[in-house]
């Protein structure tokens, strides 16, 4: 499973690292170390919970979650570069869900946010899913996809 999940894990780790970089105040060397530590923690955590033939199996186990509590894997990687949980809460969204599944990595910021796909690869032997270009972009979904009254969220944009 190691090689099979490399792309998904590096996509997830790079995303969290980009959120930290966008918040500022962390050096590139620390960010590189954080990314490597997070990748290693995810690899270890997912080792026996990766099922390419049934991608949704184990999805809850692989979900990375910050919901006013720090995800232990992010917390562990941050500890390696000397970042406290308190500092992490200042730098990262207070509500972040990141799903790391075979062939797809997606995330949601806020409980009512749109789910945005970071990485998608058609499953071997499976029907190719809709190409990403044909989907409504996350920004557009954010604007048009709201039926509940809007709440004031501080949105963080991420650029690579």
Automatic annotation (TrEMBL):
Family annotation (Pfam families): BTG
BP GO terms, sorted: negative regulation of cell population proliferation
Span of domain Anti-proliferative protein: 92-111
InterPro entries: Anti_prolifrtn, BTG, BTG-like_sf
PROSITE patterns the UniProt entry points to: BTG_2
Any Gene Ontology CC annotation: nucleus
Family of this protein: Belongs to the BTG family.
Name this polypeptide is given: BTG1 protein
């Amino acid at each position: 499973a190691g090689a099979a999940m490399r792309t998904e894990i590096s996509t997830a780790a790079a995303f969290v690292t980009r959120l930290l970089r966008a918040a500022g105040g962390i050096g590139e060397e620390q960010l590189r170390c954080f990314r490597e530590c997070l990748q290693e923690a995810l690899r270890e955590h997912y080792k026996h919970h990766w099922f390419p033939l049934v991608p949704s199996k184990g999805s809850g186990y692989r979900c990375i979650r910050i919901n006013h509590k720090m995800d232990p894997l992010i917390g562990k990687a941050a500890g390696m570069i000397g970042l406290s949980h308190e500092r992490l809460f200042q730098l990262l969204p207070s509500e972040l869900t990141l799903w790391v599944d075979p062939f797809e990595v997606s995330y949601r910021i806020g409980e009512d946010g749109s789910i945005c796909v970071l990485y998608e690869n058609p499953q071997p032997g499976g029907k190719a899913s809709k190409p990403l270009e044909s989907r409504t972009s996350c920004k557009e979904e954010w604007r048009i996809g709201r039926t509940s009254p809007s709440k004031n969220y501080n949105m963080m944009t991420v650029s690579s």
